[in-house]
Specification:
The structure is a single chain. By secondary structure, the chain is mostly helical. It folds into three domains: 174 residues, no CATH class; 81 residues, no CATH class; 79 residues, no CATH class. It has 19 helices and no strands. The longest helix has 41 residues. The two termini are 31 Å apart. About 4% of the residues have low confidence. Keywords: Membrane, Transmembrane, Transmembrane helix.
C-alpha cells in the first residue's frame, strides 16, 4: 500500500471519531441539562464557600435554637443573582423556601424547579456579595464621596463649602443615619445638581426604614456566618478600604481561585460520564475501530468515500463543544448529532454479513467477540478525547493530502 492509502485510512478514522465525538458531547450536554447537574454543583460550591450547614428539607437553626441561621447562598440566589435564574420569566421559586432535598431524585426535582444557574461570573459574584452585605443607601453613599463628585462641583463652589461637605460625608460614612444623611444633603452645594440628586436619593432610602440601622461595611461583614467567604471579604475590605472597584476586583480574583477547585473536580467527573456515553454509542452503533481500520485498508472505494466525506465536513463543519444548553434545545442537538452518524457511508452498525471481514458482522466465536470488544474500547477511548481534537486533526490530514507530494527537483 502507498503512503496515500495510509493517509486515507487515517482520514477515515479521524472523520468517524470526529462525528461520533460530537454525538457523545451532545448527549452529555442533554443529560447534564435535563438533570441540571451544573446548577446543582455550583450551588453546592457556593454553600461550601459560605459554609452554611443546611440539612435536607430542614431550615438551618442557630446554635441556641433561637432563630434560623443565615442562608447566604439563598440570599444571593434570591436577590442579586435572581436574574440568572429567571431567564426572562416573571417569577421563579425562592431558594430559601426550598432547602436541599433528600436523595438524588429530590435534588434533581428541586434544581429543575428552582432553575439554578449553571454559571456565575466572578465579577457578578463579587458585585452580588457587596450588594448583599452593603445596604443600598451605603452603596449609594460611595457615589456621593468628595472624590467621586470632585469634577461635578461647579466652579462657584468655595473651598469652605468643599471642606464642610467633606466633613459631613465623613460623619455619614462612619455612621449613616437619617440625621447624618440629612446633614450631608444640607452640606451639598445647591449648584451641584448631580450631587444633590445622589444625596436626596440617600435620604429617601433611609426614610423608608428609619428604625433600621445602616452599619458600616465591616460591621455588615461581621454579621455573616463564619466561612471562607467571610474571611476573604474581611481581608479584602481591609486592603481596599473605601475603593469599591478594588474591593470588587480582589473579591472576583478570590472567587476565581476558589472555583478552580470545582473546575478540576468537575472535569474529572465529566470525563467519566463521557466514557460511559462513548462506550454506549460504540456498542449501539458497533463502532469497531479495529474492524473499521481493516475495512478501510482493504477497500480503496471505501477510502475514497471517506476522504470525500471528510473534505466536505472540513469545509462546512465546526467542532462542537459544551455550550451549556439544557432542556429541549440540548435534546434536539443530541438527536441531530446522532442522525449525523447515520449519514456517514462507512461500515459501522450491525448486520448479518456473509463475510467475517465486514466489521458490521456479528462475531461467530469467543475470539472474534474479544477482538470486537477490543475495537469498541479503542473507539470509546478515542471518543473521550473530544470533537475539537478530531476536527483539528481531520483538517490537518485533509490539508496534508491536498498539498500532495513535493515535486521532484528538475534534472540538471
Amino acid at each position: 500500500m502507498s503512503d496515500s492509502a495510509v493517509l486515507q485510512v487515517l482520514i477515515g478514522l479521524a472523520l468517524v471519531f470526529a462525528v461520533f465525538s460530537v454525538a457523545v458531547s451532545r448527549v452529555n450536554e442533554a443529560v447534564l441539562g435535563f438533570f441540571n447537574y451544573r446548577g446543582r454543583q455550583l450551588e453546592a460550591e457556593l454553600r461550601r464557600l459560605a459554609s452554611e450547614v443546611v440539612r435536607p428539607r430542614t431550615p438551618p437553626a442557630s446554635p441556641d435554637g433561637a432563630a434560623p441561621a443565615r442562608d447566604v447562598t439563598a440570599e444571593l440566589l434570591d436577590g442579586p443573582l435572581r436574574a440568572l435564574r429567571a431567564g426572562g420569566r416573571a417569577a421563579v421559586p425562592a431558594v430559601a423556601a426550598m432547602p436541599p432535598a433528600h436523595g438524588w431524585l429530590g435534588a434533581v426535582r428541586r434544581a429543575r424547579g428552582l432553575r439554578l444557574p449553571t454559571y456565575v461570573s466572578s465579577t457578578a459574584f463579587a458585585r452580588a456579595v457587596l450588594e448583599l452585605v452593603e445596604p443600598p443607601a451605603r452603596a449609594l453613599l460611595h457615589r456621593a464621596s468628595p472624590a467621586e463628585l470632585a469634577g461635578a462641583f461647579p466652579s462657584d463652589v468655595t473651598d469652605e463649602q468643599r471642606t464642610a461637605y467633606a466633613a459631613a460625608y465623613r460623619a455619614a460614612y462612619d455612621n449613616l443615619t437619617p440625621a447624618t444623611a440629612q446633614a450631608l444633603s444640607a452640606a451639598m452645594p445647591a449648584s451641584s445638581e448631580s450631587g444633590r440628586a445622589v444625596t436626596t436619593a440617600i435620604v429617601a432610602l433611609l426614610a423608608q426604614s428609619p428604625d433600621t440601622a445602616v452599619l458600616p461595611l465591616g460591621a455588615e461583614i461581621a454579621r455573616l456566618p463564619d466561612s471562607p467567604l467571610k474571611t476573604a471579604l474581611t481581608a479584602t475590605a481591609a486592603r481596599a478600604g473605601a475603593d469599591r472597584d478594588k474591593l470588587v476586583a480582589e473579591l472576583a480574583q478570590w472567587y476565581d481561585a476558589a472555583m478552580d477547585r470545582l473546575s478540576g473536580w468537575y472535569k474529572r467527573r465529566i470525563g467519566k460520564f463521557l466514557l460511559v456515553y462513548a462506550i454506549a454509542l460504540t456498542v449501539a452503533f458497533n463502532l469497531d475501530a479495529i474492524g473499521l481500520t481493516r475495512a478501510l485498508w482493504q477497500d480503496s472505494a471505501l477510502r475514497a468515500v471517506a476522504v470525500s466525506s471528510a473534505e466536505t465536513r472540513v469545509q462546512t463543519s465546526t467542532p462542537a463543544g459544551g455550550d451549556g444548553s439544557s432542556g429541549e434545545g440540548a435534546a434536539e442537538t443530541a438527536v441531530s448529532a446522532v442522525r449525523d452518524i447515520g449519514a456517514l457511508q462507512l461500515p459501522f452498525g450491525w448486520t448479518h454479513a456473509d463475510t467475517v471481514t465486514d466489521p458490521r458482522a456479528v462475531p461467530d466465536d469467543a475470539g472474534d467477540w474479544a477482538l470486537k470488544a477490543l475495537g469498541w474500547l479503542v473507539a470509546a477511548a478515542a471518543l473521550t478525547v473530544g470533537a475539537p481534537f478530531w476536527f483539528d486533526l481531520l483538517g490537518r490530514l485533509v490539508n496534508m493530502r491536498s498539498a500532495g507530494p513535493k515535486p521532484k527537483p528538475a534534472a540538471e
